[in-house]
Design goal:
2 domains; 8% strand; binds zinc ion
């Protein structure tokens, strides 16, 4: 197996990425980072148990992890779709695309996840490579070779840190979902540092944010708890945020029962006290909204409608947290002197 690891270490240094010097800077050694970022994302999902069999599908979750790596780099004008490396890694011998029998193969290149899904079910890796990726030691050597080969010194550290954050946040999210709601809720402990690496306070914060978000967005299946909107882009972006009912700064409580998935408008409205939820889980709209016709009309239509909750009642929001919100944040009386 050792000889095979050497073979794949070598293969990972020869991914043949796009080398257009007009597009790529010295931060990525004048190469496209998409192929190494996709492989790093797959390594993270194998590490977290999100990928357990040798069949890689272009899931929303994998796309989201890929985008987190892209965000490590300075903003690019180029649109980063995971479809590009998913398709073009076919030039590597260890990567086999699994075509759909009833759909014609693309004539040109593939540039969107929709196009990819139209033509392929997913990807199979060499069986020996997949076995090596199950082993933490060989997986980390393959991760290391990707970071060392494709990124300049000033970016290497950031990419490695993102790997730690991705792996740790998945563990944190699992911990939040598997732990029964606590009577005296406190933040679940962040797992022991991944791969014995030092984890800074700043990284811990990112792990917590990303892990809480993952748990909440999964529980609510990307749907806003108050208005019900559900929108996602193929590039791994979702309309919802993971919101704390009783803010983190007050409660230090990441338990899913202190959270909801909220779209941008509902998140802002909830934080500003323009919306709340009562003890029957019904949405209440502040008189400030009801009387000011310049505010979005659709918010008014939500009044007294039941909120959307996770399927399992043990994850439903804690009514005590809503009570806190009603007392401390909700604008129960009109505060607008002009109405
Ligand atoms: Zn909403």
């Amino acid at each position: 197996m050792c000889g095979r690891l050497d073979y794949y270490l070598q293969a990972f240094t020869q991914l043949n990425p796009n080398k257009n010097r007009k597009v790529w800077t010295k931060q990525t050694n004048y190469c496209s980072p998409y192929k190494p970022f996709l492989l790093l994302s797959i390594l993270d999902h194998i590490n977290s148990g999100e990928i357990t069999r040798n069949f890689i599908e272009p899931t929303f979750e994998l796309t989201e992890t890929f985008q987190r790596y892209i965000e490590v780099l300075p903003p690019m004008t180029r649109k980063a779709s995971m479809a590009l490396p998913m398709y073009h890694l076919k030039s590597s011998a260890f990567w086999t695309l699994k075509p759909k029998a009833d759909n014609p193969q693309p004539h040109g290149s593939i540039s969107s996840i929709h196009q990819f899904r139209d033509s392929f079910y997913g990807v199979e890796l060499d069986k020996e490579l997949f076995v090596l990726l199950q082993m933490p030691t060989s997986r980390e050597r393959l991760r290391e070779i990707l970071v060392q080969t494709y990124f300049a010194p000033e970016i290497k550290q950031l990419v490695s840190e993102q790997s730690v954050i991705n792996c740790q946040s998945s563990i944190y999210s699992d911990t939040l979902l598997k732990t029964a709601p606590r009577k005296n809720p406190q933040v679940a402990e962040i797992a022991a540092p991944y791969n014995h690496a030092e984890i800074t306070i700043n990284q811990q914060e990112k792990v917590r944010d990303q892990g809480f978000r993952k748990a909440i967005v999964t529980l609510y299946d990307h749907r806003c708890a108050l208005c019900g909107i559900k929108m996602r882009t193929p590039e791994g972006r979702t309309v919802v945020d993971a919101a704390h009912i009783k803010p983190w700064s007050v409660s230090y409580n990441d338990d899913p029962t202190n959270g909801m998935a909220l779209c941008k408008i509902c998140h802002w409205s909830f934080d500003e006290g323009l919306m709340t939820v009562n003890s029957q889980y019904h949405v209440k709209i502040s008189p400030d909204v009801m009387r000011d016709h310049n505010l979005p009309g659709h918010i008014m239509t939500l009044s007294d409608r039941p909120m959307f909750r996770p399927r399992e009642s043990r994850y439903w929001p804690d009514l005590e947290s809503f009570k806190w919100h009603q007392e401390k944040r909700y604008r129960n009386k009109s505060s607008n002197p002009y109405i």
